[in-house]
Amino acid sequence: MIAKKVRRQLLDSVLARVFADYHLDPLEVFYHKDNDLVLPIISKSGCTSLKDSFIRSVVPGFDKPFDLIHKIDPKVETNGAIERLFFDTVSGYKRFCEGKNVRIVVRHPEARLFSAFTDHVVGKNPVYKWNIVERTLCGICEQTDYPSFTSRVSRISPNLCDRHFKPQSVFLMSNPEVTRTYGVLKLEGLVDSWKIDPILASLPSPRIMNKNAYDVNDGGYELLGESEWSELAKLYLEDFSLYGLLSERGGAQQ
């Protein structure tokens, strides 16, 4: 068992070094041309509601159910006003953001990860069944409890994670001064933040597309021991910092 774990970690490390800037699961963004606005699509962080809001800003009568929104090509739906773009590299994504308005919506990282785990258990997201990295390196397709799930997730490098638990910090700009305007909003309290943002206020306010989209208390957090939490803190260091979680739990072990 130990040898198998070491092999997985070694292979993950080698792949991460070889493809340092490349992301196996591409970075997705919605681009609103009229507002020159870039919105990264971060799975499990209200992305369905955000896509819906963007499309409704051009097509007021747009009203598609949760499960269809991700299948729609916004360029077709909005006659070219909104585009969905994919970037295989972080550098390519950041170059695209230069000179544009950029808004990034993040979610409490523990609530987000538990939501991803719930989808995995109930089979809501088929990505867990076919993604070779998660299946081969970490066995995430297996039925497992939450602590084991988090332990397996924490072994994966950010550029090899699928979008449902890729660190949100991947989308953050280290030099936001290269953008026209830049803002990071939290999903919790997003509706109020949206209304006062000088760019987003002109778009329809997000509406909840599933019942726990804005609930920070999804559960699961209390199920983690210190060892699992410390492993996660290494992968989600910046995500945790955004919410002050490192100071609450004493920081990540190095």
Describe this structure in words.
- This protein is α/β, with parallel strands linked by helices.
- The chain has one domain (2-249).
- The protein has 13 helices and 5 strands.
- It has helices at residues 2-18, 47-56, 66-69, 74-77, 90-97, 109-122, 127-130, 132-138, 146-153, 190-196, 226-235, 237-242, 245-249, and strands at residues 22-32, 37-40, 82-89, 101-106, 181-186.
- The protein has a 5-stranded mixed β-sheet.
- It is globular, with a radius of gyration of 18 Å.
Summarize the structure.
The chain has 254 residues and is an alpha/beta fold. Helix content is 41%, strand content 14%.
Beta-strand portion reads 5-15%
Number of helices: 13
Number of domains: 1
Give, in spatial order, the strands making up the sheet with the most strands. Answer: 3-1-2-4-5
Average pLDDT level:
83
Largest sheet: 5 strands, mixed
The run of helices and strands is: HEEHHHEHEHHHHEHHHH
The helix-and-strand class reads alpha/beta
DSSP summary, beta strand count: 5
Estimate percent helicity: 40-55%
State the end-to-end distance: 24 Å
Q: What low-confidence regions span 5 or more consecutive residues with pLDDT below 50?
A: none
- Broad shape: globular
Properties at a glance:
five-stranded mixed sheet; alpha/beta; 14% strand; 5 strands; 254 residues; 13 helices
Topology:
Layout: H1 2-18, E1 22-32, E2 37-40, H2 47-56, H3 66-69, H4 74-77, E3 82-89, H5 90-97, E4 101-106, H6 109-122, H7 127-130, H8 132-138, H9 146-153, E5 181-186, H10 190-196, H11 226-235, H12 237-242, H13 245-249
Parallel strand pairs: 2-4, 4-5
Antiparallel strand pairs: 1-2, 1-3
Helix pairs in contact: 9-11
